[in-house]
Each structure stands twice: as C-alpha cells, then as structure tokens.
Amino acid sequence: MDSKIDFKVWKKFSGRLTDYIEVISLPLTLAVLFVVQNQMFNIWLNIYSDKYYIRLLLVTFALGIVFYGPALFFTPRAKRYMYVYLFLVSFLISLLFSAQFLYYKYSESFLQFSSITYADQVPSIAGTIKTLLTPELFLFFASFLVVLFAFVLDFYPFKFSKANEFVPPLWEKALFAFLMILIIFFGYRYLFYVEKREIGYTSSLYTDVFDLKYLVKRVGVVNFFIEDFTKYVMRANLITADDKNFLQKYAQEKKPALTDISGNKYFGAVKGKNLIIIQIESLENVVINKTIYNEEITPNINKLAKEGMYFDNYYSNIGPGNTADCEFSTMNSLYPLPNDVAFINYAKNKYNALPQLLAENGYHTYSMHGDVPTFWNRSNIYPSLGYQKIFSLEDYIVYRSIGEGPISLGPRLADEDLFNQSIPKLKNLKEPFMATLITLNSHTPFNLPDDLQTLHMPAKTIYNQPQWKYVQSIHYADKAVGEFIDALKKNGLYDNSLILIWGDHGSFSNVSDAFGKKYASPALWNSQVPMILLAPGTDLKGTNSEPGSHIDIYPTLANLLGLKAPKTIFGQDLLNTKTPVETHFKNILGGIDTILTDKIIYEASEDGIFEHGSCESLPGKKSLPIADCQNLYNQELNNIKASNIIIRGNLLDFYNSNLK
What we know:
- The strands form four sheets. An eight-stranded mixed beta sheet has the order 7-6-8-1-9-10-4-11, with helices on both faces. A five-stranded antiparallel beta sheet has the order 13-14-15-16-17, with helices on one face.
- It is built from 21 helices and 17 strands.
- By secondary structure, it is α/β, with parallel strands linked by helices.
- A hairpin with a 4-residue loop joins strand 16 (614-617) and strand 17 (622-624).
- The protein has two domains: 2-234, no CATH class; 275-571, Alkaline Phosphatase, subunit A, CATH 3.40.720.10.
C-alpha cells in the first residue's frame, strides 16, 4: 500500500519535473549557448584572458537570462508568439556577434551603435567581408538554429512536447522571476565587486572606458554594445553647458599663436605655387626603403624621399571612418572623433579648412578621387571644407576595374588611370590651384590582377596572405605614383608645385610585425605612416624625425605657402615647432594610448588609469617617475576634448572668439 502511494507520488513528481524541464529547457539552452558564444568570440579573436573567465561567464549568463528568460512567461496559447520573440532575439544576437567578429578581424576594433548610421557604406567593402568569412560564424547563428529546430519539433509535423498543456501556477512563475532576478543581480554584482577590488575604488568599467578589448574581455561584446547603445540614446544634447564652459576656459588659457610668422624657417618658400596632395591608401612607413626578396617594395617613393624632406616619425590617428577621418584631420587640423565620422554626422559644420584658406588667398581648389561622390558623404562635406570642384568616378574612364568598387557591383578605378587621366585635368586648371588625389588600389582586401603583381615573390613565403597581397598592392601604388611624378615633370607642373605625399593609415595586416619593425610604443605599430614634402627650387631635403601626425600637415603647408594658418588649428608646423608632440589614442574611444615627444614618451596601461602607465625619457627609454608625464598627459587630454567639443557642438566661431 505504502509503496503504491510512494509510486504515485514519485510519478506525479517526476511528471511535474518533466513538465518543468520542458518549460525551461529551451531558454536555459539558449542562455548557456550565449555564454559559449561569448567565450569563443574572445578566444577566436585572441582577446581571451583566463583572468576574466569567471566574471565573463557569470555576466554573460546573466545577460542570457535577460534575453531568453521572458520566454518562460508566455502562456500555452501564446506559444507561437514566444517563438516569434525567440526568433527575433536570437537573430539579432547572431547578427551582432557576426558583425562584431568580422569588423574586428578587419580593423581590430569593435562596432559602436553610432556605426549603424554608416550601414550604407557596407557595400564598399563587400569584397573585404568575403575574405573574412570563416566557419566560426556558424556558432554565432547557432542560437537562431536552435530556436528553429525547437519550433519544428513543437509544431510540425509532430508534437513532441507536452508542455503546451502545462501552466505553472502564479506562485511558481513568481519563483521563476525571483530566481532570474537573483541570477542577473549576482552576475553583475560579482562583476562590479571584482572590478572594485582590483582598482581600489568604485569601478569605472562602463563610465570611463579606455580600451574596448579590455572591456570586451571582461563583459563580452554584447554587453559592451548594449552599454554603448544606452549612452547613444541617452545623450539628448551632445554638448552640455559644462562642455561649453570648458571650451571657453581652454581657449582663454591657450597660448597665443605666433604672430610674427614671417620669421619662420621656410616661410613662403613656395609662395604662389600650386599644391598637389597625393594621399596613398594604407601606406605604412615600414615598407619605405624596405626590400623583399632583393627587390625594393617602394622604389619610386624611396627616391622621392631622398629628393625632398621625408618625415619618418609621423603617425595617423583614426576613428571609425579610417580614410575619411584622415582626410578630415589633415584638412582641418582637428582630431578625428572617437565614435562618429565627422564627414557624415558633421558635414555642414563651420570649418576653417586648408582648402578654404587657400581659396580665400586666390587658389582654385579641387579633389580628385575614383569613388562615387557620395562615398563617405564627400559630396556634402567637401564644399564645407572649401573645395570648389570634385572630380569623381563619373569624370574618369574605367578601362579596367581593380578590386572591389565603391558600390558592391561597381568599378574601382585603377590608380594608374586616376593619375594618367588627372594630368590633362591639372594642365587645364587655372593656377595657382590645390588638388588632392586619393589612391584606391592598396585598400583592403588588396586584390590586384595577376599581371599587376610585379614583385617577384614566391607563392609561399613567411608572410601570410594579407601581407603578401598588401606588399604587392603597395608596389603597384608606388609604380603609379612614380609615373605620375614623371608626368608632372614632363608637363611642366612639377617645378611650379609643392607636392605632399602621405599615407593615410595602416594596412591592418600586421605587416610591421612581419618585417620585425619595433616602435617606441606597441600602440604605434599600425599607425606610423610616411610623409614626404617635395618643394622644387628649395633646400627642403633630408629626413625630419620630429614627432608629428595628420593634424600637423595644415600648419606645415600653410607656412611653406606663406599663409598664416587660423588660430583654431590644433597642429604644429613641423618645420618650426619647438614642442613636437604626437598623441595616439584609441580609434573609437579617444582615450590616450601613447604620447610621444622628442624627449619623453608616455604609454598608458590597459586599464587607462594614468598612474598605471609608464613615463620614459628618449632616446633610450629610461624610466621616469609617472608624475613627470602628468602635465603633458593633461595637456593632450584637454586638446582632444576641446577638439571633440568644437566638432560636436559646431562651436568653431565660439572657440575662435575666445582665443587671445
């Protein structure tokens, strides 16, 4: 009798247990899978750390409960809506994982929510995306597939689940909710507890992010994206009253610009001459004067570096816009924004750009580029910068398309065609003129036709495929530049022009590591680019090792042309500066990585806390007290902050009115 009662009790208990398992199995499976996806995401991108394993596991499981836990509270009649909910959530998460994975492989950074506004630029790098596709992406869509599989089992063609008939009583649902809240609270509470214990005070994990990799290591990429989305939505006003007060005080305390510029070295050395700017896509300094299998990678640029002045300690800083950010920084002597692209979001701002300065002094200003004019919104911002005419893809004949185009199925103008067809255009321009020419073919994924891969390299080398393709594409770009300079000479344009040749940013191929190049700071490995000035008829020759970056081009060119740059610029004339400084910051955060001067270097720590960084003298990198870098650090942090406020608030006139 008792055994029969016990059996009935056990059968009832086991039946109820089975019902509960069926109810929670799918959400729990998805939450656990979410943890696995986060862990593998970090491992595959080589940003995983055993140190953060527990906190990453707990906080991602907590977030998984946030995403998938609500599925527990759909009634049996609303079960189809539960699947709609799970389909939507799992698809969005899968898409986010995949997009972040591909973007990091491309640029070694992470997408922020503001990047959604640049989604129309995705087709321009479709070819690059194809080269980055890997089997790992299947894991990131596994949650979507799990939901799909569960739906099929539940509804078609057989019903395997009996959970449709089971409705937990209200108090049990309340218990589910309590347990979910407890898991979520414990996961995030543990995260902040550990963070506080490690740094000794209230955690700045989300409020003062320095290194995105450092954050994603600890909380996972989805947690990061949600935090970034929250910041984006909540910033109703980009510029606060405190920001404006800061900018006013910064302007009033800023040292006055030099008033007697006529005494500057090389001032007006090429006054009245044309200005031709050649911006070479992804040209890194490491390939200059470098041979590979007994061949020079850039023989023409090497020759030009000896004919003019070669800046070998020069760096780029970029935000999410890469080339567009380099253009913006160069033409305005302002820092790129950490999480927006000024070319798109602030195209109609008031600027005191270099083309505008030249136009005000009798120059005719032109841009020559083999993309469609709307690419990165150039057609909108160029007039704001002072360009009077844009020569774009429609103004050139594409004899052959090389690599991916500005649109997914469109052509990509060969660099040789850009330069060759630009010569007659330049000859017909009224002088003096300013013309910028931007190359394309050394852009990732570095796809060149076989007949243009003229470096004699074996198919199998110590270099990986992206590096092999990169040096081939740069060798081709070098050939095109050499032919262009020769054509300028033959057509009488060379001697009457100041010519600037510069690399916009790195190749993101780790080619510097492959060549064994060592920099003053690891943060600079992919940002050192060459800058060469050719000023025929002057003694502007040799190697200049003053630390500099894109914000310094504007004042340097203005000095050579005999023009006074506006007080609003942030760069320095590299031919006359007494305090050379290059500040490298995280490309979509703005936190300082490295500050490099001719006498000192500051390198930030991974957590971004100033006191945890290092301060060393140059040359030799002798350790100094961290306090020796404090004033320099504060100065550069304020410079970046002031530049960002000017751009976001369209406050150039306000800033100018407060300068002494």
